Amino acid sequence: MKNKYLALILVLVLVLAVFSGCSDKEAKAPVEEDSEETASSNLKDGKYLIKMPVSDHGNYPMATLEVKDGEIISFDYNEYLADTGEEKNESNYSYKEGLEVLKNLNEQFMEKKDVDSIDYDAVSGATHTKASFKEVVNALLEKAEKGETYEPVFKDGEYEAKADEASHGWLAQIKIVVKEGTIVGVNYEEVAVEDMEGQKVVVDEENKPVMGDDGNPKTEPTQVKTGDIKSMENYAYLPSLDTAAEFEKQIIDNNGVENLNLDAISGATHTRDNVVSLATKALESAK
What domain range is 140 assigned to? Predict the structure, then answer.
């Protein structure tokens, strides 16, 4: 009888030991935190902005983020066209899948508030956009964690300026678009003020200049009409066109005319000076 009691006591001790071990494991089990709370718990209140450099394709990504009481309350990521300052949309961008990816990524981030929780394969295509999105949003969140808030430099709007007089039949003008207090579009043009004879560059099937034996692009006569915009179709000195494009890009990237690399392209100093002076004039009313 005594042995039976001892056996029963031993069984009870073993059972209690097992339950005690399970209880300890449960107590030590890690508690999963809500991903949204984790992503935004260290963010400082304020508005944040990231604008990436203009690509060789003439577009670039820009994103804004606003935090209030430590929580993300607004977010927008888009890709902009450098010449117009417009966001990509159905009327100015033919790659439909790319637009769908942009919309989906914005929706997912606002829902999850965590760039690593996004399903980047939810919409196929636009691989470059997806990579840029992740890079830009991570940089934006890093700024928000450090409290490096964004202060607008200019007033939103469109600003224009024209040269006082034409040069060799061409009148220089510029249009600058500001959104979120930063320059998002620059379009410099030279417009014909009279009918005149011109020279245009001969191009091949890929729209590339055909080079002559002297190493310069081949040209042929063309008729310039009043109101025509200077281009390869009616103007043969390509460095002038390249210079205009380069400084349009620089003004967006530098958010103004300060700290421009004036020696980025040799030649066409008259065009360079026109772009910079007209941009300076246009931005006077944007401050």
Answer: 37-146
